[in-house]
Amino acid sequence: MDPEALVASLQEAVPGAQIAHAPSRDRQTTIYVSGDEAPALLRALRERPEFAFDFLAELTAVDLWPKEPRFELIYVLVSIANRLRLRVKVRLHAADPHIATATGIWPAANWLEREVWDLFGIAFDGHPDPRRLLMPEDWQGFPLRKDYPVQLHMTPRSDEALQVTAEQFRANVMKDRLTRER
């Protein structure tokens, strides 16, 4: 499917959405969509048979500081049935970078969204487990932001013993098992 036909089909699937084709050096089809319209567009890409983008291959972000909008959230989707790849970019402003979670559309988005939040500070509204993933819980700031201070004078505390009782540990393990069995 050529990019113009894809954008036209998406306009029909999500009426009123502002979808724009973006040029790409790697010839992978790339589109821009606003943060408000992204959830409906992503759901259409997943659920409609003519698209069938059933695999979220990657979710990442780019900090374009000092430009505004500052962030670009990038979804790389694959339609195995249609043998297509699509890059969806969402621009987010620095003042309040947030977007609805895609975990209800692709469960694999769970950890990818946690990684983006942890490193860029982009919040995902409705995320089921918005904890830090890569940085220690007591870490301050978001290390992949371009204005993040390189020279930190912070005492590392990630090697401290985890302060949970044996009962709390067992309860956490059981909660994790129950979550995975659903």
What this model shows, in words?
This protein is of the alpha/beta class and 182 residues long. The protein contains four helices and seven strands, in the order H-E-E-H-E-E-E-E-H-E-H. A hairpin with a 4-residue loop joins strand 4 and strand 5.
Overall structural domain count: 1
Output the CATH class name.
Answer: Alpha Beta
Uncertain stretches of 5 or more adjacent residues: none
SS-derived structural category: alpha/beta
Number-wise, the strands total 7
CATH fold title: Beta Polymerase, domain 2
Shape: globular
Major beta sheet, specifics?
5 strands, mixed
Q: Classify the beta-strand content into a percent band.
A: 15-25%
Q: What is the assigned CATH homologous superfamily?
A: NADH:ubiquinone oxidoreductase Nqo5 subunit
Separation of the first and last Cα atoms: 36 Å
CATH architecture grouping: 2-Layer Sandwich
* Number of DSSP helical runs: 4
Residues in helices, as a percent range: 25-40%
List the helices and strands and how they pair.
Blueprint (H helix, E strand, L loop, with lengths): L2 H11 L5 E4 L7 E4 L4 H10 L7 E9 L7 E9 L4 E9 L5 E3 L8 H12 L2 E3 L40 H16 L1
Parallel strand pairs: 2-5, 6-7
Antiparallel strand pairs: 1-2, 3-4, 4-5
List keywords for this structure.
182 residues, alpha/beta, Beta Polymerase, domain 2, 5-stranded mixed beta sheet, two-stranded parallel ribbon, 7 strands, 27% helix, globular
